[in-house]
Amino acid sequence: MDPTCCRCKLVEETDLHALILCPTVKLIWECFGVDVDDEWSGVHNMEEWARLVVKRSDQTEASKKFILLWAIWNERNHVLHGGEPNNPSTIVDNALKYLESFAGLMREKKGNHGGCIAATNQWSPPPEGSWKVNVDAAIFNEKGCGMGVVIRDHEGSVGKARVKQVRAQWEVNITEAKAAFLGLQMARQMGIESVILESDSLVLVTLLKTRKVENSNLGNVVQGILRLSEEFGSCAFSFVKRNGNKAAHSMAHYSPLDYSTRIWVASCPELIADIVSADFMSSFS
């Protein structure tokens, strides 16, 4: 891969250049109100940058800078894969809107209001008549990535399970989103009308709940999920901690690594079956 920066095409890209020093990135920070040459002169790497931000900023301001950093990295990947560059002010606005949406959902969770992102630590069965689609991603670095899906009814019985492993090296958030899309596709093919899509990716669930669609590779997949969700009579999005998503997690990491799609109907591999049984039993505790 060409090490030259994909945006300015002037120098070899480093993390510091990609996120702070690239002339195109400086314009983004300028829209945010930061003169990079003035505020962060003398910074040699991203660890120094992070320490400086934490030292000089209050919690709110630091959160904004870190979320903008994430948006800049997404923009870099968007351009790297052939996308048209977004306007700097649009990148800043979208990042701050996402942060506000996320903060609002976290306030709801803290206040235990209805419709919030649940912070459950174990799997729970869906209501009778509904199915729960648990999804997860696995990153195998240079070997590729995997997507796991386990679909269960209100009695904890598996309707379908699936693992898809590919050689593509997607970012974790994109792989999580692709796993979610795969899970909804399976549910639709089963003729399910009422579904709960559950993931341990808070980033993904927040984007889906707020219907946040960005002009990026991740945004394209999120948009596909939202469109597919409209084909169901009822489709809800649920966040669960990793401990409550073990079945899908194990499916995504299913070995041996085989670049193919493997599907189980009304069953699942023995290892996952043990997790499914434990999940259902723990739901009564």
Q: Any idea of the CATH topology of the largest domain?
A: Nucleotidyltransferase, domain 5
Report strand order across the widest sheet: 5-4-1-2-3-6
Average pLDDT, all residues: 89
Going by helix content, strand content and strand pairing, the class is: alpha/beta
CATH class identity of the largest domain: Alpha Beta
CATH superfamily of the largest domain: Ribonuclease H-like superfamily/Ribonuclease H
Q: So what's the oligomer here?
A: single chain
Our count of helices gives: 11
Fraction of residues in helix: 40-55%
Q: List the uncertain runs.
A: 112-116
Number of strands: 6
- The assigned CATH architecture of the largest domain is 2-Layer Sandwich
Mind telling me the C-alpha Rg?
21 Å
The string of secondary-structure elements, in order, is: HHHHHHEEEHEHHEHEH
Describe the sheet with the most strands: 6 strands, mixed
Concise account of the structure shown:
The protein is an alpha/beta fold.
Describe this structure in words.
The protein is an alpha/beta fold and 285 residues long. It has 2 domains: 15-111, no CATH class; 131-282, Nucleotidyltransferase, domain 5 (2-Layer Sandwich). It has 11 helices and 6 strands. It has helices at 15-21, 23-32, 36-39, 46-56, 59-80, 88-111, 172-189, 202-209, 217-229, 246-252, 270-282; strands spanning 131-139, 145-152, 158-166, 194-199, 234-239, 261-265. Strands 5-4-1-2-3-6 form a 6-stranded mixed β-sheet. Strand 1 and strand 2 (145-152) form a beta hairpin. Helix 4 (46-56) runs antiparallel to helix 5 (59-80) and helix 10 packs antiparallel against helix 11 (270-282). The longest helix has 24 residues, at 88-111. The radius of gyration is 21 Å and the shape is elongated. The termini are far apart. Mean pLDDT is 89; it is low at 112-116.
